[in-house]
Amino acid sequence: MDKKALLSQLSIDRDSDESSSSGRPLKWLLLIAVVAGAGFLVFTAVLPIEASTVEVRTAVAQNLAAVPAGDSVLDATGYVVARRQATVSSKTTGKVVEVLVEEGMHVEEGQLLAQLDDSITRAQLELSESQLRASHASLDEMKVQLKQARLDLERTSGLAGRQLASQADLDRDTLTVEGLVARLARVEQELNVAERHADVQRQMLEDMQIRAPFAGVVVAKAAQPGEMISPVSAGGGFTRTGICTIVDMDSLEVEVDVNEAYINRVFPGQPVTVALNAYPDVQIPASVIAIIPTADRNKATVRVRIRILDRDDRVLPDMGVKVRFLDDTPAPRPVAETGVLVPADAVTDTGSEAYVWVVSEDRVSRRQVVIAGTRGDALRVIAGLEGGERVVSFPAGSSVDLDLAEGDRVQIVN
Question: Does the 72-83+251-326 domain belong in CATH 2.40.30.170?
């Protein structure tokens, strides 16, 4: 009986196994339904966003550039050069103690750029000033001796008049006075020499301070504290020949090499437009300064100097430029206009306000602008918009403007 009871305990319960296995498919079905529902919700949430993307045409706001009148008769390329540029150095060899400038810094004429070691020069100046004081003391002593000699001469002259002194005594006192006068003149000259020597030492001490020769911008820094600097190339690579390089930005001009076959189209005073390679859309008014009266045999070109009429902070030394030589129509001075140019179909004018739609990172935002006039088919905007910004343009009859809202996603089609 005990064996039968044990064997019955080892038997498999078919009913309980079927009930547990029948519950597993129901759990998997519920999990699949939840995942499918979440995917449907994500799909329905993203789909309206993608569907709301609006296709638009855009235009770029252009900076105003006053272009002189006249048609181009010749195009050329060149570079911006500085007529006033200097690598500032010292008059004597010395050790740099302090450098007070960095690249890009604006400096004024006479501003302190660097300080050299002036310990020896200062000691020499103190020695010269001591010698100068000694010369002053010698001069005072000689004046006292001369005064005494003149008094002696007066007494001797009086005694000689009364036959109480010999002629020899009178001659001796007379020569003494004349000798002291000569010595006094020599001491005065020595004093003058001592003053000049002291002035030289003061100038040498002042030369230990390197100052800007003119106002400009520092474009290169060549020395550091602790280095030796010299006006000549001495000491190999261990001695610098300059502290920094300064460029007078007001002296910038353009130099162009013109093929000698077309130089007859260029003349002094000719109106020119200059476009920087870095900013090809910016037309800068200019004029021809001079034609250099010599040709380059190897390149068959003639160099032409061009003056930039309107100073622009974007013009930098050694920039590449494209130059358009205009005809002989006198180049009027451009009217100083500000703002940017945008197509007329990019501006919506409701009567009470004017606005544009600005595109930034595939989103649009409405921005109010101020219109100051027209130039051809474009409008001049003087407030609310910067050059280079992209605005939405609306062709005639388009209703896209009515469909846009702040922050809408757009797709540029042009």
Answer: yes
